[in-house]
Amino acid sequence: MIKNSFLLFIFLLFSAANLFAQPYLKVQGSTRQLYVADKPYLILAGELGNSSSSNTNYMKPIWGKVKSLHANTILAPVYWELIEPEEGKFNMDLVNDLIVNARKNDMKLIFLWFGAWKNSMSCYAPYWVKTDQKRFPRATDKNGIAQDILSPFSENSLNSDVKAFEALMSFIKKVDSKEQTVLMIQVENEIGMLPEARDHSPLADVAFKKPVPPALFDYLKKNRTALMPEFNSLWAKNGSKTGGTWEEVFGKSLATDEIFMAWYYADFINRLAQAGKRKYNLPMYLNAALNYKREAKPGEYPSAGPLPHLMDIWKAAAKSIDMLSPDFYNPDFKYWNDLYVRGGNTLFIPEIRFEQGVGAKAFYAIGHYDSMGFSPFSIENGDEKMNADISGAYKLLEQLAPIVLEHQGKGTINGVLFDKTNTKQELRLGDYIFSFSHDLNLGWSAKAKDEVWPITGGLIIQLAADEFIIAGTGIVATFKPLKEKSRAGIASIDEGVFEEGKWMPGLRMNGDQNHQGRHLRIPEGDYSIQKIKLYTYQ
Fold first, then answer.
1. Strand ranges for 362-423 from DSSP E
2. Cα(280)–Cα(500) distance, integer angstroms
3. Which residues contact 267 (CB under 8 A, 6 or more apart)?
4. CA nearest 374: which of 435, 343, 417?
5. pLDDT tens digits for 255-312?
6. Does residue 43 contact residue 73 with C-beta atoms inside 8 Å?
7. Which of 31, 190, 269, 522 is deepest in the core (most CB within 10 A)?
8. Using one digit for the tens of pLDDT, what is the confidence trace for 15-34?
9. 3-state helix, strand, coil in the chain (%, to 5)
10. What's the CA gap between 298 and 230, in Å, rounded?
11. Which of 430, 440, 531 is nearest to 490 (CA)?
């Protein structure tokens, strides 16, 4: 009996040790969080330029530079053409160097698989794939002209991409499952069809004339009341049919061409991700190239990718993908984020233009949208101002991470974002209404007369009934209680830091610093954490 009990104990101990043998996602309230070594993790990242991780020596000075920005994670491309330069012969030296050097610099990695597609094109496919068009057919336009895009209707292309991806995932598991340096995988990069809404190759045309797969109808019927409104509207416009060809179900249009193409891209990606997860079950996400103009037609942007109006298609066909994520190179930050948090999708921003305002946007995304993380693109190439912006934000978020992670998904954290076109916002938290505004609204700075105002923002966390943390840059907050005929007063404001999770107050922000009890202020250009305690009176 004792021997059996001991063996059972050893088995349970071993099982517990291996239960979280890789990073995973876990639900908290209304969101999901990334867990690493069985602890929640806030991704404060930077994405490398496309070619930077292709050479270990080139990367040497980059590690320290990125770490100095208070980033904890690097998004690094890994390249099919370099991993498998000769078919069936895999070289993981670059991948291994990235993992080893990330550990040396106490950083984590998210790998971007530049496989069959990168920004629509197949430029990272190996030479032996590019030069064998018969075996690996290309997508074509209406005129039959081949594009530099592998057709997702080719089983040969899928199988070869799968073999390389399986080799990558097997290698990561072999060298990293214990240390968990590699957190997630981005599968391909900004998938989308150009210059048409769909592939017109012979393989694609055959598929287009076939009935819509039953799996899509199963999804549509099961999720009828939760479909994205723009997709549901298109389906309903043609009678909400549950059988027929693509044009019979959705009508003859560019939108139908895009839906069809999205299904087969998603099916390809699902099979690829499934194969990779069987080797090592890391979280996997897709990134999307957003429409540069909202009114752009399919084919005028990388069509059929994991875009908001196609989320139902991607969710139906690519069940192995954990998140759909926006890449930002346009100013409509709130608009697109609102679309990407629908349908239970968790926000992660893997790529955003590195420019003024990224720090404020990081606060806003993490506070307002419960974002899993944030990552400016070409992080190693920022100038002094850009570096100061993101490092100022990340330095605070690094300290706040445990509290942020504790409150995400619970309705006790929120964020604000401002520019000259949007200078005020009200938030309700607990028993108070907070009126936030852009710091330049005060008119105390000469910059207030400028035509363009810098982007500012921050986040707020409720610690107790009357206690709050406010952090950010260029924001002012005033307060009023929900209780009628009552007013809010400031009991105290302390600027401070968190050291190993413990609050260390510094300056008592009173007098001129809180405008004689009128507001909390973090001036534009400053980055600060302030703890405020309120009270009410009549």
1. 373-376, 413-418
2. 32
3. 152, 317, 318
4. 417
5. 999 999 999 999 999 999 999 999 999 999 999 999 888 889 999 999 999 999 999 9
6. yes
7. 269
8. 444 456 799 999 999 999 99
9. 40, 30, 30
10. 15
11. 531
